[in-house]
């Protein structure tokens, strides 16, 4: 596919994300890129995403290797979701509990799907959840891993990673990072939605946060204004013993989410005309200061 690289829309530890457009069809998509010589992590992400197909997961399109400015670049092609991240949605303050329930249900659907596929996300947080007209999608699988990598012929073992504020205690201690760690991070993300703040708002130093999570007996503070069912749901996510945390499948049956199917249908109807796909040419035209660069696939 021949395409033109547009503006940068995100930067991470291992790669940058750009908007891109196909020179033939005009389709819009996202490109996650890094130099080929440093693309080990991005190639593992490609292997994982290429096995996942779900409306609750950002859609994988393919990958290319391009020659740009005398450098070889490894590029992961992904669905472009125009409405930003969950963190963007809560930037102006906390979300209403009905919205928290709606997004939590969809995040859980994504987690139940990837967990049943043997994949742990390992970096669940608002910034890694994209919001479309249809709801929430899990994105950024840069830290993801197969829990039993031997079954997937994975020759690159993923190390423990993620964002300290959202790490479970077993991750902070460097012991393990599996499905229960994603559930802990979901609980932290609910607190993020409910308060508009970090789950550990009094800490900014990653080392201090990791020590507090791993070696104290504390858990993030539950917002006292949440209803009892929401607080009970949080309690099932934020148990310090990973063996005692509920699974995604169990949490989908929790009473906190009983009305989410009705709300999802209602919100989907309200957003039926919203631009959400890689075909959203109008959004592409509205982006200012394009940084265009033609890419030549190898």
TrEMBL record:
ATP binds at residue 32. Keywords: ATP-binding, Kinase, Nucleotide-binding, Serine/threonine-protein kinase, Transferase. GO terms for biological process: signal transduction. It holds the Pfam family Pkinase. Residues 3-257 form the Protein kinase domain. GO terms for molecular function: ATP binding; protein serine/threonine kinase activity. InterPro entries: Kinase-like_dom_sf, Plant_MAPKKK, Prot_kinase_dom, Protein_kinase_ATP_BS, Ser/Thr_kinase_AS. The keyword Endoplasmic reticulum does not apply. Belongs to the protein kinase superfamily. PANTHER family: CCR4-NOT TRANSCRIPTIONAL COMPLEX SUBUNIT CAF120-RELATED (PTHR48011), MITOGEN-ACTIVATED PROTEIN KINASE KINASE KINASE 19 (PTHR48011:SF4). This is Mitogen-activated protein kinase kinase kinase.
């Amino acid at each position: 596919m021949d395409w033109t690289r547009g503006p940068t829309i995100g930067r991470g530890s291992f790669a940058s994300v750009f908007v891109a457009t196909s020179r033939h069809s005009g389709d819009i998509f996202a490109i996650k890129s890094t130099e080929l010589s440093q693309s080990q992590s991005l190639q593992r992400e490609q292997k994982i995403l290429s096995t996942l197909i779900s409306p609750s997961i950002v859609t994988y399109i393919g990958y290319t290797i391009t020659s740009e400015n005398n450098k070889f670049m490894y590029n992961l092609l992904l669905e472009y979701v125009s409405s930003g991240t969950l963190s963007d949605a809560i930037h102006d303050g906390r979300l209403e509990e009905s919205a928290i329930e709606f997004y939590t249900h969809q995040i859980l659907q994504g987690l139940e799907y990837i967990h049943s596929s043997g994949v742990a996300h390992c970096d669940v947080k608002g910034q890694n959840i994209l919001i479309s007209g249809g709801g929430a999608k899990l994105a950024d699988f840069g830290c993801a891993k197969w829990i039993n990598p031997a079954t997937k012929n994975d020759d690159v073992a993923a190390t423990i990673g993620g964002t300290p504020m959202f790490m479970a205690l077993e991750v902070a201690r460097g012991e393990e990072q599996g499905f229960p760690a994603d559930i802990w991070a979901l609980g932290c993300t609910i607190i993020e939605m409910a308060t508009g703040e970090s789950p550990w708002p009094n800490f900014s130093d990653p080392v201090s946060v990791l020590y507090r999570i791993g070696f104290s007996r504390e858990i993030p503070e539950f917002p006292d204004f949440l209803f009892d069912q929401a607080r009970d749901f949080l309690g099932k996510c934020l148990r310090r013993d990973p063996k005692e945390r509920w699974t995604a499948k169990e949490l989908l049956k929790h009473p906190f989410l009983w009305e989410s199917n009705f709300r999802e249908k209602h919100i989907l109807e309200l957003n039926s005309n919203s631009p959400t796909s890689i075909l959203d040419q109008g959004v592409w035209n509205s982006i200012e200061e394009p940084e265009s660069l033609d890419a030549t696939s190898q």
